[in-house]
Amino acid sequence: MQRALELARHAEEQGEVPVGAVLVLGDEIVGEGWNQPIGRHDPSAHAEIMALRDAGQRQQNYRLPGATLYVTLEPCPMCAGAIVHARIGKVVYAASDPRSGAAGSVFDLLPSDRRFNHVTEAEGGLLAEESAQLLRQFFRARRR
What string of DSSP letters covers 59-127? Predict the structure, then answer.
């Protein structure tokens, strides 16, 4: 999660909402990403999607079973869908997202929706305060 926070800070330096994600398979980082929708002019360029794209290219496979995704903010419904399609084994997120979180805060797509053909575990709270503070500072500065 520390690496995901570094990537979130990188996103912030680029004027993006500070969210970072790291995909781990075994003991190896196989994908990294940070929020880039503004710079890429791409609404799907969330940190999780960018990490999945990076890992897919590195692994030469769009399926990543057994991988764990560490992300600094609870995934949104779009990212939750991509996570399920990639067959990610587990998502560990830092801060909850009370506006669009899809791991129980607003929606229950990870892990409780058993209608999917794959179930991804999810747990939150790892370095939650650090991540939440980074987001609060970012949005406070944007409002000024």
Answer: HT-S--TT-EEEEEEPPPHHHHHHHHHTT-SEEEEEE--TTT-TBTTS-B-SSS-TTSSS--EEEE-TT
Q: How far lies 65's CA from each of 83, 99, 114, in Å?
A: 10, 29, 17
As a residue count, the chain comes to 144
Catalytic residue among 28, 48, 129, 130: 48
Tokens of 80: 């939750």
Q: What would the pLDDT profile of 93-129 be if each residue is shown by its tens digit?
A: 999 999 999 999 999 999 888 888 899 999 999 999 9
Q: What is the CA radius of gyration of the chain?
A: 14
Residue 25 pairs in a beta bridge with: 28
Catalytic residue list contains 12 = no
Question: Which pairing describes strands 68-73 and 28-34: parallel, antiparallel, or unpaired?
Answer: unpaired
List, for residues 47-69, the tens digit of each pLDDT value. 999 999 999 999 999 999 999 99
